């Protein structure tokens, strides 16, 4: 029986030991014991990666006891937290202090360290992924040494360590740049996919946070435009919130996916139901708009491409789905962010668009994902580190201008591969 498995259930493992340290000194002791006994160590977060990036094969560290707020510096807009904190708990703490993360992905089940380590992002052209919000971090290296890393101290480790793939050591604490709490007005509505693609540049410039889902087998996209507002929260009422967020997005959608898995030939007809949900508009505190509950399980692949390539790339994907006759019940998600300077951020050095494809858990996904991957690779696509892909070190090294810099930092910090696993061997070469 595996002791550990990820959220999607496609990664499983039986580590020899599970350690649950409750202080940094206990983390150091675990790492030193591992090194002395020549065993490998892997920290797992919430297991929300679809790839094997978090798979522990010898010693597994669960940091769920390192989940406290350490310091709030309002004047400088900095919040220091222990690395194992789950994003939903962090949001609740920030809300209580009238503070907020500037941006989030679409769920908050992940740990903070787990999310930043794979370059987790949301949408919004004026915002970056979560890792670029890091001001400093504390890292336990393979020698059991503690490094404080920022733009002033251990600069090279900081530069690379914000998106570390778990390969540089154990992050125990993170200081984040936060902003005063803000509300968002959300407008959700179906639009013709051709209209969205023809007007994509304008839609992402005009809205603070814009994303859309193309519904395969239809000419429709479900769009979400979220804008910062001074208007008060106008919670649409518990029933309507439950109906939209839980009933439609989870229970009813889950039933459609089940029917589609049993009778794939019905998927194109079932798909036409999705754009009929109509228009929704409401105001809420930002983190409640950014993220939703996800009860329907799926497999996912996501690639980041240069922003300007979005329309031609997505049009190729749409044509391929029709030509190849794939039956796809999950909408294809499209988001965008500003670029940043983190070597292994999927948006390093370029404003980025992201195309994410999903398949309902238990359905065959490999052929569909490989066909999408072949298209996105032509656009110099970079795969999300935590989402299914087939690339290895030789592919990855050509996609990241600072690949070698990361490798050098890793060689210094972990020459023996204490923190490696099969996935890291594949994408980093050892
Ligand atoms: C339903 C769902 C929705 C998602 N939505 C989004 C989204 O909107 N945007 C997006 O970009 N991604 C999204 N993801 C992907 C997800 O954000 C990433 O895979 C993220 O890394 C998961 O965080 P985790 O805490 O589960 O970490 P894990 O998957 O458990 O671990 C990820 C990596 O972090 C490392 N790690 C964890 N803690 C530490 C630590 N303290 N020190 C060093 N390394 C550490 C692990 O070793 C591993 O390498 C989604 C995934 C799911 C399942």
- Give the overall average pLDDT: 94
Poorly predicted residue ranges: none
- Gyration radius, rounded: 21 Å
CATH level 1 class label of the largest domain:
Alpha Beta
What's the domain count? 2
Strand order of the largest sheet: 16-13-15-14-18-19-17-20
Can you name the CATH architecture of the largest domain? 3-Layer(aba) Sandwich
Largest sheet: 8 strands, antiparallel
Share of helix, binned: 25-40%
What does this structure look like?
The protein is α+β, with helices and mostly antiparallel strands. The protein has two domains: 63-180, 2-Layer Sandwich (Uridine Diphospho-n-acetylenolpyruvylglucosamine Reductase, domain 3), CATH 3.30.465.10; 183-383, FAD-linked oxidases, C-terminal domain (Vanillyl-alcohol Oxidase, Chain A, domain 3, 3-Layer(aba) Sandwich), CATH 3.40.462.10. Helices cover 32% and strands 25% of the residues. The chain contains 14 helices and 20 strands. The strands form five sheets. Strands 16-13-15-14-18-19-17-20 form an eight-stranded antiparallel sheet. It has a five-stranded antiparallel sheet with strand order 6-7-11-9-10. α10 packs antiparallel against α11 and α12 (393-399) packs across α14 (422-428). It is globular, with a radius of gyration of 21 Å. The chain binds flavin-adenine dinucleotide.
């Amino acid at each position: 029986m595996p002791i550990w498995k990820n959220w999607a259930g496609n990664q499983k493992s039986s580590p020899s030991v599970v350690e649950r340290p409750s202080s940094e000194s206990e983390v150091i002791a675990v790492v030193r014991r591992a090194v002395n006994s020549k065993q490998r160590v892997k920290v797992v977060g919430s297991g929300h990666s679809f790839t094997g990036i978090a798979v522990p094969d010898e010693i597994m560290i669960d940091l769920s006891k390192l989940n406290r707020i350490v310091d709030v510096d309002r004047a400088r807009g900095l919040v220091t937290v222990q690395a194992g904190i789950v994003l939903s708990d962090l949001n609740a703490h920030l809300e209580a202090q009238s503070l907020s993360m500037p941006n989030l992905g679409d769920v908050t089940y992940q740990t903070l360290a787990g999310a930043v380590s794979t370059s987790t992002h949301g949408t919004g052209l004026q915002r970056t992924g979560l890792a670029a919000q890091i001001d400093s971090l504390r890292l336990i290296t393979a020698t059991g040494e503690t490094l404080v890393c920022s733009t002033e101290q251990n600069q090279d480790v900081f530069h690379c360590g914000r998106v570390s793939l778990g390969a540089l050591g154990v992050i125990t604490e993170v200081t984040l740049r936060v902003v005063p709490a803000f509300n968002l007005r959300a407008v959700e509505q179906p639009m013709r996919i051709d209209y969205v693609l023809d007007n994509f540049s304008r839609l992402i410039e005009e809205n603070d946070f814009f994303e859309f889902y193309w519904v395969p087998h239809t000419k429709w996209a479900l769009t979400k435009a979220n804008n910062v507002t001074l208007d008060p929260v106008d919670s649409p009422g518990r029933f309507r919130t439950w109906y939209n967020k839980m009933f439609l997005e989870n229970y009813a959608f889950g039933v459609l996916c089940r029917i589609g898995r049993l009778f794939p030939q019905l998927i194109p007809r079932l798909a036409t139901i999705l754009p009929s949900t109509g228009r929704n508009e409401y105001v809420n505190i930002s983190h409640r708009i950014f993220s939703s509950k996800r009860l329907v399980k799926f497999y996912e692949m996501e690639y980041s491409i240069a922003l300007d390539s979005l329309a031609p790339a997505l049009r190729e994907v749409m044509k391929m789905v029709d030509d190849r006759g794939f039956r796809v019940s999950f909408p294809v998600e499209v988001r965008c962010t500003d670029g940043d300077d983190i070597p292994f951020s999927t948006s390093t050095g370029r404003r980025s668009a992201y195309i994410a494809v999903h398949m309902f858990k238990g359905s065959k996904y490999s052929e569909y994902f490989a066909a999408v991957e072949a298209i996105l690779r032509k656009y110099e696509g970079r795969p999300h580190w935590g989402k299914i892909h087939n690339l290895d070190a030789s592919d990855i090294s050509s996609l990241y201008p600072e690949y070698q810099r990361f490798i050098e930092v890793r060689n210094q910090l972990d020459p023996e591969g204490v923190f490696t696993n099969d996935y890291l061997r594949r994408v980093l070469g050892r």
